[in-house]
């Protein structure tokens, strides 16, 4: 691997592309009221603005990851940028419900290509200590980007218009496309044919699974379709010579632990990111902008800690760092579950956020590293796809569980407390996965 001198443009391309995906989710979180008002959407229709994106994002992730392995990372990455940028433009121009829902679904396809391909490019580009540092930045972006995006989304919703955030993606996508042409190596992939039956069955199975979680009607039917689709997909991957998700990815103990742990961890975090801004607006009277700014204690600490991950990994190991990070995140969530209005923001929310921020900073990068550990270059895209599937599906499942728990108590403070407790429970199970699977798997590979 050639030593890079000066500014690392490749890492910028990877991180900026990932940040664009995170930004759009946060704009939807903080801009729902304005979007509903501008486009005259009822609550059921409004939910599909997020759901349409989640369905295509989750459904196309495995295809997006494997396509880079077969046809070349750079050209697949550029295709993802074109789809995502065009989808963003159409969302910003939307004038009615069908247009914004269709545009969000199209945008989700672009995200499903970009998310795994950027991680695979990272794996191809960096080795040794450079790879540890690059993965640390990539993993940290999942936490930092989500938190910073809440602030940006709040600014747009409160001071400008929700459309600005989507229009912003167009010039950024064009710039990323130019930088990709200039700085990313043109590769032609390993060649071969795409597993179309595997692609179709995974698309049906994953989309139906996401719908069974976030849909409002026929959820049981969707779950049945998901099971049939996913069983067919696994059988196809077992028998085909060129699977889009090689089953050999799941024979490694460390990777299995990373997939299970990431699923649970992101489930807790996505629910936390979604319901906490609502608590601050409904119970403390914060505006959308202020509820975004209120995440700064978490964001700043997360950023500082994430910069130390590469050094700490060398000292404690990836698995050891992950155990500490998950334990701290769970402790912060347990603290947050004691929030009451008299306790207030600083001691009831900001202080627990500091602990959660330290935990996030120590956890997300090691989860990413463990999820792609010991993979050969030909499987890097597929492994990256599985990492992102666990991220996306885990987030959807956890969000659904925490929101349902909160609603059981009428959405009041007691509901928030119980929902956060459930999130802490998910984190404790993730901690068990790290101790039982990831740490022993990492030690065995040494």
Write the topology of this structure.
Blueprint lengths: L8 H31 L3 H29 L1 H21 L3 H29 L2 H32 L2 H22 L12 H19 L4 H21 L13 H31 L4 H6 L2 H11 L2 H8 L1 H19 L7 H28 L8 H28 L5 H33 L1
Helix pairs in contact: 1-2, 1-4, 1-5, 1-6, 2-3, 2-4, 2-7, 2-15, 3-4, 3-6, 4-5, 4-15, 5-6, 5-11, 5-12, 5-14, 7-8, 7-15, 9-14, 9-15, 9-16, 11-14, 12-13, 13-14, 13-16, 15-16
What report would you give on this structure?
This protein is mostly helical and 446 residues long. The protein has 2 domains: 9-194 and 242-445, MFS general substrate transporter like domains (Growth Hormone, Chain: A, Up-down Bundle), CATH 1.20.1250; 195-241. The protein is 83% helix and 0% strand. α2 runs antiparallel to α15 and α9 runs antiparallel to α16 (413-445). The longest helix has 33 residues, at 413-445. The radius of gyration is 20 Å and the shape is globular. The two termini are 22 Å apart. The mean pLDDT is 83. The chain crosses the membrane at residues 9-33, 45-64, 76-95, 101-123, 135-160, 166-184, 196-214, 220-238, 259-276, 288-307, 319-339, 345-373, 385-404, 416-439. Its main location: membrane. One of its GO terms (cellular component) is plasma membrane.
């Amino acid at each position: 691997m050639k030593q890079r001198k000066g500014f690392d443009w490749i890492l910028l391309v990877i991180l900026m592309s990932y940040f664009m995906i995170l930004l759009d989710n946060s704009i939807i979180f903080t801009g729902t009221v304005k979007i509903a008002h501008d486009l005259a959407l009822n609550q059921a229709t409004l939910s599909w603005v997020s759901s349409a994106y989640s369905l295509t994002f989750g459904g196309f992730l495995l295809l997006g990851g494997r396509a880079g392995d077969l046809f070349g990372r750079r050209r697949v990455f550029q295709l993802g940028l074109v789809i995502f940028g065009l989808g963003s433009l159409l969302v910003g121009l939307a004038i009615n419900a069908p247009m914004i829902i269709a545009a969000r679904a199209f945008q989700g396809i672009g995200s499903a290509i970009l998310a795994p391909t950027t991680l695979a490019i990272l794996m191809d580009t960096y080795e040794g200590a450079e790879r540890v540092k690059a993965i640390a930045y990539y993993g940290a972006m999942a936490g930092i980007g989500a938190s910073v995006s809440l602030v940006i989304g709040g600014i747009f919703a409160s001071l400008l218009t929700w459309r600005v955030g989507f229009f912003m993606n167009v010039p950024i996508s064009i710039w990323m496309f130019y930088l990709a042409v200039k700085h990313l190596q043109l590769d032609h992939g390993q060649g071969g044919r795409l597993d179309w039956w595997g692609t179709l069955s995974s698309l049906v199975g994953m989309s139906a699974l996401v719908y069974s979680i976030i849909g409002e009607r026929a959820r049981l039917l969707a779950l049945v379709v998901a099971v049939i689709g996913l069983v067919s997909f696994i059988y196809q991957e077992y028998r085909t010579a060129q699977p889009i998700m090689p089953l050999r990815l799941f024979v490694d103990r460390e990777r299995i632990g990373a997939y299970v742990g990431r699923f649970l961890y992101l489930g807790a975090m996505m629910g936390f990111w979604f319901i906490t801004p609502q608590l601050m607006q409904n119970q403390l009277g914060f505006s959308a902008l202020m509820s975004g700014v209120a995440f700064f204690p978490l964001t700043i600490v997360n950023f500082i800690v994430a910069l130390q991950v590469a050094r700490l990994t060398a000292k404690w190991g990836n698995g050891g760092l992950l155990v500490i990070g998950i334990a701290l995140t769970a402790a912060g969530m347990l603290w947050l579950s004691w929030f009451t209005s008299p306790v207030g923001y600083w001691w009831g929310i900001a202080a627990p956020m500091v602990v959660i921020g330290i935990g996030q900073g120590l956890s997300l990068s090691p989860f990413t590293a463990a999820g792609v550990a010991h993979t050969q270059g030909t499987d890097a895209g597929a492994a990256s796809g599985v990492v992102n599937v666990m991220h996306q599906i885990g987030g959807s499942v956890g969000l659904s569980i925490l929101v349902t728990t909160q609603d059981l108590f009428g959405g009041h403070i007691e509901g928030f407390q119980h929902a956060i407790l459930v999130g802490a429970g998910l984190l404790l199970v993730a901690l068990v996965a790290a101790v039982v699977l990831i740490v022993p798997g990492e030690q065995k590979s040494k």
